[in-house]
Design goal:
22% helix; 65 residues; Alpha-Beta Plaits; alpha+beta
Length: 65
């Protein structure tokens, strides 16, 4: 299973991740990413990884857990 990590110091609120995977990422009132799920099942892997790669400041990391 995949685990997600968000670097809130790097996040600039572009919301590319939200557009690509709105069930996994959101943006809070301060314009920072919020992880809606901490672990991602295998069937969602490609979509969630693509959403993380879409971040222009590389604020999202995915790791195997």
């Amino acid at each position: 299973m995949l685990g997600l990590i968000a670097d809130l110091n790097a996040c600039q609120g572009y919301a590319n991740c939200v557009i690509a995977a709105p069930d996994t990422y959101d943006i809070d009132d301060d314009g920072l990413v919020v992880l809606l799920r901490a672990r991602i099942p295998g069937e969602d892997r490609a979509r969630v990884e693509e959403a993380a790669r879409s971040c222009p400041v590389s604020a999202l990391t995915i790791e195997e857990r």
